[in-house]
Amino acid sequence: MSTMDGYNFAYLDEATKRMIRRAILKAVAIPGHQIPFGAREMPLPYGWGTGGIQVTASILGPADTLKVIDQGADDTTNAVSIRRFFTRVAGVETTARTGEASIIQTRHRIPEKPLREDQIIVYQVPQPEPLFMLEPRRAEAKRLHALADYGLMHVRLYEDIARLGHIAKAYDYPVMVNARYLMSPSPIPAFDNPKMHRMAALQLFGAGREKRIYAIPPHTEVHSLDFEDHPFRPIRAPHACALCRSTDTYLDEVITDDAGGRMFVCSDTDFCAERQARAAPQEAAE
Amino acid sequence: MTAPLLAAEGLTLRFGAIPALLDVAIDVAEGEVVAIVGESGSGKTTLLRVLSGMMTPDAGTVRWLGDDVHAMGEAARRRLMRTAWGFVHQNPRDGLRLAVSAGGNVGERLMAVGARHYGNIRAEALSWLAKVEIDGHRIDDLPRTFSGGMQQRLQIARTLVTRPRLVFMDEPTGGLDVSVQARLLDLIRSLSRELGLSVLIVTHDIAAARLLADRILVMRRGRVVEQGLTDRVLDDPQHPYTQLLVSSVLAA
């Protein structure tokens, strides 16, 4: 597909990119702190990754290779359309391979393969405010962040344990970044939270509708909130992947028929395919 | 005499043309229970809000152990509010989180000051529920399922759990029926004696003031018209307004 004429490189005009880059720099300087920015109208609806797209567009260069993940997969609607969008407006290379990408835009997952220092991961964030459900007043939530007054979040976790015996939050599990700011990791499964801790890659978060950008610089401490006697547990389905037999990756449950048939497969399609490819020649040799 | 915990002087605050406080001075010593009485609109609640740092006066200072309360930063004031101080609201719905269980309500202050052990928080919550005579098996119930008196006792437990040195109470018995009031006053008295608490209590109930307070301040139209030991003020009122107030109490 050829690049479209009439658009600036990567769709956004240079002044907008500059504004977003300034927000990103500030976000990197204060890990986990939400920076407001002037989110633009994008040619797709809110909730489809407008924040992530704007961050990606601002950091994208002609030499970059882009990978887009939607729920772990590279071939779902959101991933395909965003990848095609950047192919058309920026003409950059795209890939489905985690190892080959220099920028990875993601929704709901972090790749299973550990990221490197020369990679950047961009998260699409629907609700950047971790205290949103507890403190509806934005001004008050901001004050709580400023004073690092996060007792409220623990009250929520306490309530979960009191009622259900365990912390029930399975995704968007709140984290403390650099022992200072409480942060929403976007709706990734709690299983992925430990991957954020001291990740080698730069992590950027963009929320388009809420107009916020935040970041975690490489090798930053990220801790999931918990209690001493109820430590954080990453949750995964207790099965092996039906395709690659992995027992330590995050699994999707897939309904296969209407008679109760189901299978568990890796949610990270690239990782699963790579494992299958590696296993295939061995099986042939046996 | 040792220096007072809380010392305020020259407090003045106007709401437009209406003077809410005029040159008010007040001291609270360690372990002392001070009552502020007066009619509606006399500035009692405003005084409490100014003393606890929730409102800033037009003039005058409030000192906590020598530090100016209104000059300290908001972070320091909030820390004070959830450690050394407590505030019991007239309406328990203002002081409680109604969507959070009784145990969570009591535990909130503990978690805010850094408690991170669920078992300990829960044990502490249970022991405080017992102290305020709430049945332990209601620990996971929501406060909105509690009666008014229970909500008020829960609010007291939630406030006292971090062992504050000074508790502000804004008509804690308002809106409760007489027998519940009596039990609540009893509870406040025994807890404050047991813990050596200083209490600054606003009330329009002279009987409550006599039962609880060591000292009493009578306010009218933003001024303290009379103050002294409770028995002295109530048995031998000097100011005409205090005389009126004392004589208008119905004898049971």
Structure, explained:
- The complex is a heterodimer of chains A (286) and B (252).
- Helices cover 29% and strands 17% of the residues of chain A.
- Chain A has 286 residues and is of the alpha/beta class.
- Chain A folds into two domains: 14-224, Rossmann fold; 236-286, no CATH class.
- A seven-stranded mixed sheet of chain A has the order 1-9-8-5-4-2-3. A three-stranded antiparallel sheet of chain A has the order 7-6-10.
- The mean pLDDT of chain A is 93.
- Chain B is of the alpha/beta class.
- Chain B is 39% helix and 25% strand.
- Chain B has helices spanning 44-51, 74-82, 92-95, 102-112, 118-131, 148-160, 178-195, 206-212, 230-235, 240-247, and strands spanning 6-15, 18-28, 33-38, 59-64, 67-68, 85-88, 166-170, 198-202, 215-220, 223-229.
- In chain B, a hairpin with a 2-residue loop joins strand 9 (215-220) and strand 10.
- The longest helix of chain B is centred in the last third of the chain and has 18 residues, at 178-195.
- The mean pLDDT of chain B is 90.
- The interface between A and B is medium-sized, with 18 and 23 residues.
SSE blueprint and pairings:
The complex is a heterodimer of chains A (286) and B (252).
Chain A: H1 14-29, E1 35-36, H2 50-59, E2 65-70, H3 77-90, E3 93-94, E4 103-107, E5 120-124, H4 138-146, H5 151-164, E6 175-177, E7 181-183, H6 193-196, E8 202-207, E9 212-216, E10 222-224, E11 251-255, E12 262-266, H7 269-285
Parallel strand pairs in A: 2-3, 2-4, 4-5, 5-8
Antiparallel strand pairs in A: 1-9, 6-7, 6-10, 8-9, 11-12
Chain B: E1 6-15, E2 18-28, E3 33-38, H1 44-51, E4 59-64, E5 67-68, H2 74-82, E6 85-88, H3 92-95, H4 102-112, H5 118-131, H6 148-160, E7 166-170, H7 178-195, E8 198-202, H8 206-212, E9 215-220, E10 223-229, H9 230-235, H10 240-247
Parallel strand pairs in B: 3-8, 3-9, 6-7, 7-8
Antiparallel strand pairs in B: 1-2, 1-4, 4-5, 9-10
Helix pairs in contact in B: 4-5, 4-6, 5-6, 6-7
